[in-house]
Structure formats: C-alpha cells, structure tokens
Amino acid sequence: MRHQEAGCFNDLPAHVWPRNAKREEDGSVSIAGVKLTDIAAEYGTPVMVVDEEDFRSRCRDMAQAYLEPKNVHYASKAFLTTRIARWVNEEGLSLDVASENELLIALAADFPAERITVHGNNKSESFLRTCVTRGVGHVVVDSHQELDTLNRIAGEEGVAQDVFIRVKPGVEAHTHEFIATSHEDQKFGLSLVSGSAFRAVQTAHNAENLKLTGLHCHVGSQVFDAEGFKLAASRVLGLYAKIYRELGLQLDYLDLGGGYGIAYTVDEQPLDVQAVAKDLLRAVEDAAGELGITPPTVIVEPGRAIAGPAAVTVYSVGTVKDVHVTDDATRRYIAVDGGMSDNIRTALYGAEYDARVVNRLTEGVPHATRLVGSHCESGDILINNALWPDDIAPGDLISLAATGAYCYSMASNYNCFGRPAVVSVKEGTVTPMVRRETVEDILARESL
Amino acid sequence: MRHQEAGCFNDLPAHVWPRNAKREEDGSVSIAGVKLTDIAAEYGTPVMVVDEEDFRSRCRDMAQAYLEPKNVHYASKAFLTTRIARWVNEEGLSLDVASENELLIALAADFPAERITVHGNNKSESFLRTCVTRGVGHVVVDSHQELDTLNRIAGEEGVAQDVFIRVKPGVEAHTHEFIATSHEDQKFGLSLVSGSAFRAVQTAHNAENLKLTGLHCHVGSQVFDAEGFKLAASRVLGLYAKIYRELGLQLDYLDLGGGYGIAYTVDEQPLDVQAVAKDLLRAVEDAAGELGITPPTVIVEPGRAIAGPAAVTVYSVGTVKDVHVTDDATRRYIAVDGGMSDNIRTALYGAEYDARVVNRLTEGVPHATRLVGSHCESGDILINNALWPDDIAPGDLISLAATGAYCYSMASNYNCFGRPAVVSVKEGTVTPMVRRETVEDILARESL
C-alpha cells in the first residue's frame, strides 16, 4: 500500500502528471492554464483532458534523442484521433498503424502516407491493398504468408512496396531483467534462431514487387533502460551482417519498436529518453563497426511514452462507503462515475495509477482507500490500494494521471456506458476532441 | 491442453453450442437452419449470431424453475439490445439494469418499467430520478448514502419507491467451494455481520418515501450447484427473521442474484437449473419455516445463463504460422479477424472457449494450436491451448461458442477496430440486430 501523507496528497508529482499541470492558489488543479473544475462543469465527467504541449514536447524530446523526427514513429494504438495524428504530423514524426482503420484515420487527418509504417500479425487482403494503393512508407511483414500476399498485391497494383521484416530477437523483458531466449512463443515476428527470419529476408529480397529496407523487432512494454534494446539490436545486427555477407544487401533501417516506460506512480521513474537513446545509438554503431557493416538508421516506436503522461481522466466522486475488512479495520470505497469501461488497465494488467483530488486541497488523515468505478462487477477497480485523506466526499473531483495511453483506445460500452468526452488544452484554451457518447449513439447501430 | 481427436473436432457439443446448432450434410454448421457460411458471406466477419429460440428457451427454463417468469430477472449487463429486451419482455421475465443507459435502452424497447429492477453501487442523482419518475419496480439500494438520496428524490417526485437492500451475505465462491466469511472486502452491499445491513433496513423502513419489500444478495459468478445460494439464503433469512421480530415487517422478496454457471468447454457441465431451483426453493421454505416467517418469493438474476450459450462468434482465418517453442516442438498460431476488441474475456479472466471450423469438416491430425486475434498486442489471444486438426487454413471460418454474454457488452474499438455485426436467427431466417461499426462511426464523434 502506498503511503501518502495528507499534505503530500495535494502535490502533483511532475514525473507523473502532464508537464503543464499545476495546483492553483484556490487549491484546484489546472492543466495548461485551464482549471479541471471548469472543464468538468462544461463537459461533464468522466472527461479526458489532453495537454497538447505536453504531447508535442514529448514528440520533440524523442525526435531530438533519435536524431531526426521521422525516425520516431508514434504508435497510434496507444491513442489515435485525427487531431492526435495532426499533432504527430506537425512535429514531423512518422506514424505506426496496426489496422486498416488506424491507417484510414491517419489518412483522414492528411497524414503523409510515406511517413506511415504498417504493423499487424494478420493483415487482410483489403488492408494490404489499401497500404499499397495509398503508398504507405513501410509495411512490416509478419509472416511468410504475408510476404507472398503482399508481393502479389503490389504486383497487381504495379508498385514496388517498401517492407521491413518483423524478427523475433529472442529477447524477453522479464520484469526488470532481459532474458535472451532462443524461442519466443508469441504471435508476432519470425524467428532469428530457427532461420525463419533469414528465409523471409531471402524471399523479400527475391520478390519482384517488394523492396526490403529494414528489420523490425520489439522487446516488450514498460522498459526502463537501454539493456533490452541493446541486446535485441546486437542480435538483429548479426542478421544484418549475414544478409550483407550472403546477399550483398545493405539494409537502411533498424526498427527497435516501442516499450519506453513511463511513471504511473510517484515511486516509478520514467525511462530517461536522452540517455537511453545515446547509449543505444552508440551500441548500434559499435556493433555495426565490429560486424563490418554500415550502421542502419535506428527507428523507434513510442506510443505510451508520448501519449500516456499527456492526459488525465477527471471523475466525480459519488458513493463513499466504509467496508469492514477485519474486526478492527475498515477500507473506504470511493466510487466514481466511470470505471472499467473507460480504463480497463487496472483489471486487465493490474496497472497502478496516481490520483489526486483536483477541485480543492484535501486535509484529512490517511485512510486505507480503494477507488472503484460504477460498473456492475466487483472487479471494477481503478486503484486497488491507496492511503488517502479521509475528507474526500461526494461531489469532489478525482483525476487519474497518465491515462493518455490504452485507456480511451480500449474503452468499451460496458453496462451501456457512453465513452467519456475528450478535450485538449493549450495556453488557457479548451478544444473538444471527441464528444461524449450518448445512449442515442449506442442505439444508432441497432436494427429496430 | 485439451485433446480433441480429429473426428471429434467436427462435433458440436450440445451443452456448449446453441440448441439449434447443427452440422449439416455438406460439413458446414447451421444455426436455426441458417448456415454460418451464408451469414459470413452476407454480413462479413467477425459476426455474432444469436439463436433466438435458444435464448427464449433458456428464459422459459428459468421461468419454469422459479415458478413464475417475473421471478426471473434477466441481467442486461450480459448482453442488451432493444431486441433482446423485447424477447425478455415477451417471455414475461423481469429485467435487471445496472446503469441509466441500460434502463433507457430497456424503456426504448417498451419494457414495462414495473418489471425492471435497478442495480448499481454508484447511482447518480440523475439515474435515481429517472428510476423514480419512470416508475421502475425496484431499486436495489447499495449504500446508506443512496437511501438518503433516493428518499429525498422520491419525496420530491411524490412517489413511494419500492426498494430492496443489497446485503453482503458473507458467502464467497472460491473455485468450487463456498466459504462463509464474516467480512467481504468489495464494493457492493451492506454487511450482515457488522449490523450495517440491519441499520439500512431500519432507515428504509422509517423513510417516508421508500417502501422496503426485499433484500438482495449475490454469491459470485459461474456457480455450478445450489450450495452457495443456499448458504447465502440461510444467512440472509436470519435477517428476515430479525426484521420480523424487531420491526414487525414481513418482506415479500428474496433476490438471490445471478451466477448460474454455463459450460464454455466440452469438459464443463452447466448448472442444472431445474435441480438447483428445486433444491434452493425447498431450502428457503425450510429455513423460513424454522425461523417462523412466511417464505419470501425467490428472485434470481441470470444473465450469462440465458445469453451466453445462445450466441456464437464467427471469424475468418487469416494468417497461419508455426512457431518453434522448443527445439523439437512447434505451436501453430491461427489468427482470425477479430480478437480482444470483440472478446476480452480470455485476456481479462483467463476464459476458455470451445471453437470449431464451421465451413467444412476437418480431417487433419491434432496439432498444438493457439487461436489469436489481429490486435497489436501479444496478449491478444482467444484460445490459449488447443489440440486442433492441422488442416485449418486461411479462408476457413472458425466459430467460438458461448460468446453471448460479456463479449459484445464489453467490446471496444481497440486498434480502431469496428465492433462486429450482430444478427439473430430463427427458423431459417436471419435478422440483423446491430450493424457492423465502421470507421465513419468511430470518426463521427470527433470534433474536427
């Protein structure tokens, strides 16, 4: 259980909250100069508030760390709307998409197709054809079957499609250690060790309508140092050397995927982007030098590390209930007007969050508390264990920080809840991004 | 790992599949006389197919077991559309809702308000007012705070609102055993043991605008015998006796909640509804007799047990990939065109499913297989371990059975996937229920 002193509970840990979050003199919390109380009053709760400058500044940090904006591919699965795609484009980053609809949304936002890289373990014929005809930069091929299909489609459309091959590097993130394994029992990629990846490279190299320009690998999620990336890079670079030796082919890009860790709680420290990048780029250069190949351009795919800390979710407190957990201890259950429909991460991954009262300063003494949602399910928990001031009451506003990634993108209509409104804030101004979903929206697709 | 002989894989276990599912002579599978291949061709995949007569027959089975249709309250959270609400109404059942939108959808389907019971740990003022003004049958009150709010609102609206109190019976389902505990560390209900439930009864009894007519308790999910229900009933009936002795009040109803187990896999056996009901009703009668009170009418709240087995989800096979898991073993990864966006239960609860190829007979030899979705996440798994025939190929149709409950209702737009189409089938006819969600639907709520 995380102990939070009553006074500390009014702090907003800078490494967790959006860069422009601030506790105002009246005790309320603002983001980019806009009070969350005002947003709640105008847009209702739950509402997601995205700090535009925070999002953009993290794009720029990544761009600087990886030498050029276009080497940083924002992973849209974390959180994608057309406005998000526009911000990413304006910052000069590239974009990863992993479904036909993600691609179509990016294109609807006029994202340049040549800066889009396409992922997916099971891309349909229709999806691949859209990739080819719309001219996406790279398709990351995930199977031998896809190589054949994509080569055929590219041929039919008269295009030479740029591709990467997704390789299983045999490196797995195990909590905070990276394990080199020879086998990886998961759906993505082609095995280095078994030779499957090299066979795919040969196929791609020989395919009439494909142009192989790089390899892709991914080590995991919420990674906090360079070790896993370096280990994966060194293994995959071995394949670059073999490709150069045996096929005479020099690949331009090495896509090391995502997984850049962020701080969800005050105890965590986000990955140091500049230091990791420096360490990683030097390691790639050194390894390439030892192998006698030209170092490929390193590409990274942060999603969470850009979108995650940029947004908070604001809820209203409803029911407050003390529950006897032993004969002489109670736990306070604070229920808010959202829950597992707008944030499944606690239930799905055991995720932890930092939350604060944002409409006023709190003054109570620490009390064992659980933050729950309004769904008809006992597992509908947002924060499992906290020590929070005991003066939190119905009508207070509570915000969870770092909800920008994998919350809205995984939101459901469970219990027929409409999904929250989303707004962005910048320099004192609020701009609606997605309007709140209504029961009419939910009924609209029904055939009556 | 479940071993399925190649021949057996063509069977459709009757206790798992919809009652009108059938393997046709051409090797394909039909439901209610409609081939799933035809539905897939017309509506695309993934598509959810609901066997109307299966759903209705399970309503009737429950109604018969619990003496009158209105004693059975279908739990809408499992799966609710206006058509589902109409079926439930036509079968004479009552309806549980757990959110304002579930209530509004039921009312939009002309479900009689007096047969609606309202749940929720955190009902908003607006929700409670809608309950009162629309005249719902019962509000199941979950906190002292709610008693006060509801009494005030009922007074403002000039209504005497019928209520149940939700009680923590101190009975917990632990896998297949029921444990009597004195404390229950969860958000729902008021404790029997601490006296909190009795205090709420007194408050409700004395409240000017509330009429207390019953108590509610819930023991868990996927329960397979009467023991847990009987244990909970005997504990709660103790409170009925105390209420009778101390307040002279005879409560009409005992709502024992849901949790009726269904078979997801061939190895499981569904709860025997008739036998459990008989056992449970007799136990309630006996316990009431011993306590010297008139036995209350037993109410139950099945959701999964009615909707779950009535529907299947049909997917198309895309990528088939063999992955080396040890030096001499491979696992086949079969990827379909849906996944955790339309069925989060495997990832969220470790759920298991029965799946079959439905477009033809299979003839291959058993091979270790994992069924995965198309999402950009390695945890996007539908069936973790199976031994399936090795002749399943791209273009085949695979259906998961028993997906009627908590699949569509918890579906998301992860990776911007549109949610599947839903159709119902009856006597050879297909009727669209919910149309497939498009990228235009997803973009429609954006503020551009």
Task: Explain what this protein looks like in three dimensions.
- 2 copies of one chain form a homodimer.
- In chain A, strand 16 and strand 17 (329-336) form a beta hairpin.
- Chain A has helices at 36-43, 52-65, 82-90, 100-108, 125-134, 144-157, 196-206, 227-247, 273-291, 304-307, 345-349, 439-444, and strands spanning 21-23, 29-31, 34-35, 47-51, 73-75, 94-97, 116-118, 138-141, 161-168, 171-174, 177-180, 190-191, 210-216, 253-255, 297-299, 311-326, 329-336, 355-357, 366-372, 381-389, 397-400, 421-426, 429-434.
- The first copy, chain A, has 12 helices and 23 strands.
- The first copy, chain A, folds into 2 domains: 8-51 and 309-444, Lyase, Ornithine Decarboxylase, Chain A, domain 1; 119-301, TIM Barrel.
- Chain A has 448 residues and is an alpha/beta fold.
- In chain A, the strands form 4 sheets. In chain A, strands 4, 16, 17, 18, 19, 20, 21, 22 and 23 form a 9-stranded mixed β-sheet that branches. In chain A, strands 5, 6, 7, 8, 9, 12, 13, 14 and 15 form a 9-stranded parallel β-sheet that branches. Chain A has a 3-stranded antiparallel β-sheet with strand order 1-2-3.
- The interface between A and B is large, with 86 and 87 residues.
